[in-house]
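Design review, sub-item: ligand-bound model
Attendees: FS, YL, KQ
YL presented the inputs for the MV4 complex:
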Amino acid sequence: MFEKVLIANRGEIALRIHRACREMGIKTVAVHSTADADAMHVRLANESVCIGPPSATDSYLNIPAIISACEITGADAVHPGYGFLSENARFAEILEAHGITFIGPTAEHIRLMGDKIQAKSTVKELGIPVVPGSDGAIKTDDEAYKVAEETGFPVLVKAAAGGGGRGMKVAQTREELSGALANARSEAKAAFGDDSLYMEKYLGQPRHIEIQVVADSHGNVVHLGERDCSLQRRHQKVLEECPSPALNDAQRAEIGGIVSKAIKGLGYLGVGTVEFLYENGEFFFIEMNTRLQVEHPITEMVTGIDLVREQIRIAAGLEMSFTQDEVAFSGHAIECRINAEDPRTFTPSPGTIKDFHTPGGLGVRVDSGVYSGYRIPPYYDSLIGKLIVHGRNRNECLMRLRRTLHEFVIDGVKTTIPLFQELVNEPDFINGDYHIHWLEDFLAETT
Ligand code: MV4
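KQ shared the predicted structure:
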């Protein structure tokens, strides 16, 4: 097992990784920008190294500085968390070249899934259902017209280098297709330096359902069920739940089995998430994430499995600590992302937290690195923490969520807590009757 893990991240996820290491008896190194010297995970880590000025480009994305911090402290592995360098194949390769273990999948798998065209054709070969559309890249308008004739309109033009919703254009009709392609191509070229495009039938009101997988170097692959991440705004998830209100046990076992088989065929290593759109009882692959995700705790609450510990075990060459037969899905979990933002406009609200009091009690988990007196720096994303609640069923989970949202005190900055207090009383949400556009529609109707 590793003796010392360097945590190449900040905020709540850095603390989350530290906690897993601490339980495993592994020493930690925190790296931080000058703006994060007072962070909780920096205080708790066994050692810390300042790696640069506030700008993430010069600190959390600064590969030479992070490698130097590894060398200075003698860290034998790096956990990248989410965001920043977590899906940077070059970073994984450079660490390997320095004899340091990247706690994550291989550089090859990161690179493969980063190219959305390659990702889609690879998983399709492995038996995962995909959205009907172009077979690979679209090179000419004529090709695009031919694909659209097969799928019907509307269609969605996507950038191979995009993902997470960047570089997409809808064409409602044949007349709009040529313009959508031209716009998508120039945007993709400017944003990613890669203007490869592909095309899919546009699904109108799907849910976003993602399957968590875990794979080790001994050939074991297990799925940990799904998360429903349909409640989002501008491609930022707002609230996630596990299980999805739309799936039953048989559907979970079926899609989970399909995904596990494909992941085994891929020779994948570590934790990963296979994202689907789900409409009219059918799953359609959209992307695969090769990192630990923000919303991983709801899966942990329902399965009792520590995903970060499993990541570390797997990176160290051990077997994962459970088999598919041992995975038991128990009850329901919901996560609310608490951001330092105006709850209606989502304008960031950095500043000093005067008072911070977290809810507690049975089935309640708060993942956060902030504390009373902490100053939220304006340089990074506005996540203050995550409220995660568990109940024996969805209704108990909702009751507990209402109670904990009432108990949570964050004074000094605006937060998204009032939005969640509204959501938990919305009939559609209570009934689990929502899709990927529901929240934006709700915000537009109620503002
Ligand atoms: C789609 C789609 C409809 N049809 N693909 C957006 C992010 C990227 N991961 C894929 N996305 C979408 N792809 C087809 N063929 C609608 C979206 C989409 C979306 C997907 C998941 C979660 C939120 C979303 C919000 C807007 C659009």
